[in-house]
Sequence to fold (636 residues):
Amino acid sequence: MLIIKLALKNILGAGLRTWLNVIALSFSFVAIIYMQGLYNGMSDQMEKIAIEAEYAGGQYWHSSYDPFDPLTLDDAHGKIPDNLHTLIDRGEAIPILIRAASIYPNGRFQNALLKGIPPDQKILSIPSGVLENGGTSIPALIGGRMARSTGLKKGDYLTVRWRDTNGTFDADEFFISNIMKTDDSAIDNGQLWIPLEKMREMMDMKGEATIVVLKSGSRFAENAGGWNHKNLEFLMKDIRALFLTKSIGGSIFYIILLLLAMLALFDTQILSIFRRRKEMGTLMALGMTRGTLIQLFTLEGAIHSVLAAVAAAIYGIPLLTYSARTGFGLPESTDDFGLAIGNRIFPSFTGALVAGSILLVLTVTTIVSYLPARKIAKLEPTDALRGKMT
Amino acid sequence: MKYIALVILMITPAFLFSQNNPSPAEILKKIDDNTISDSKVVISRMVIHGRRGERTVRAKTWQRNTSDSFTEYLDPPREKGTKMLKLGDQLWTYSPSTDRTIMISGHMLRQSVMGSDLSYEDMMEDPFLSSLYEGEIAGSGELLGRQVWIMDLTAKKDDTAYARRKIWVDKERYLILKEELYAKSGKLLKQVDIHEVKFIEGRWIAVSATYKDVLKEGDGTEMMIESISFDENIPDYIFSKASLRK
Fold:
């Protein structure tokens, strides 16, 4: 208790030097929490968007389907197994048929993916209801990115050419029934969503699908006759790996900030030990052991981080709360990077994140404070009293 | 004896008539006989009309049994050395700039060849009209100063690339002077117009034609044959993947 009191008295007595260190350290606190919160927010947002628009409660893939290998797409279709069919009939899953096609927007040739979806589905956030009424033409729903890249607008007609299940060419006019605004480029870029039954008819693939999407929260994971179950853990793997990499990359920024703060603290400790030799000699003469003296100096350093946490809380809490509410605006071009984030990132600050950051800074500060204090172990009281350092 | 004489008398006009008016199947067979050979070596020129002007690509092609072919691009310098090998239903391209051989399959087959109106899948098509289509003579007419039959062809099997074709066939030379390729829905997809024909090594050959993807804007792609020789003895090594890198 004595050394705590003594340490507090000493560092408060140091005045400006202490507060400069505390402010520098508090910046590190806020920066660490903000950066990590930003990455957490991005990751949460991407996962949420992907779940709502693509994955819902997990997917079943046709055995030949590999989304990263477009060459497999021609063979990736088949009859839906009975147990998945039962889920579809109960409204707990939806089938999606995916095929490659060629489109001719404004007379230009472009490759595209045709995706057949039941218009009345409610499992994914895709506004497929607009596909209910297409009149005589085939209604198609496209995303904003696709609309921009092709120059298509709502109400336009588009010539689409495809090959049916036998490889025979077919072509027809599609009517752009709506342009959806989506943050998920994976359901947008180069894709046309059309009514599933119409697509099955066009492709001569009655009752077939490429993937089956399960309802959110579904725990269904039965074996489905050669169709592979992909749970959210698997489907999110790439997003999580991406953010782990981003987070590691981003940590370089606050590591530098932390290093600068630690350098300042290290210098303060060295200076403090040098200037307080007589004080150390006196304390030793009065019976304080070297170990206690080391503890005192280490504690003085560590208290800097406690004060920094308090200072960070004073200006950091309102700042971070505000940023969590209003979000962080992204430039227009971010949309083209293929990340399903949206126009704003909303940082996400959790208790674990704050506690982890405090623990990290406290530990690093304590270590940095201890390193110069080790010198005291070699200190002779008589030399110290005379202002000498051995 | 009287009976035989009567039969001969009856069938003679029919025989003579069939010589002048062969059946659609016979016409298709004769078209195939005229165009298809065991092997051929062709030097061709392709003029591609793009949005930013036109460019000409020259190539030499060795072809064997209609199923295998090897093409080496000669011009322009940017494309020189690019090679393409087709063995049955498989296709590879080799690019000297990257020194890589790529197998073209799946969606890549839909891509255009050198920016032309031809896609790789057009090159993969089976050329035998007589085995793929049933024909019907829809009429007669004149094209390029030649008397032609206008024929509607319907695919015999479900797995034929084009469900329907319309061809204009020279009545005397059994050469297609114009062709329209249709989708299953009846939409016109591609059109081929012949501009010039030549008699080479006992065959009538279209030496200048325009190939047009009708769904695309533009003037199509002109194809010209600079030289062609049939039934050449082409060594087997030409049709190997190893020759792509040579």
About this structure: DSSP finds four helices and 13 strands in chain B. Residues 22-244 of chain B form a domain with the outer membrane lipoprotein receptor (LolB), chain A fold (CATH 2.50.20.10).
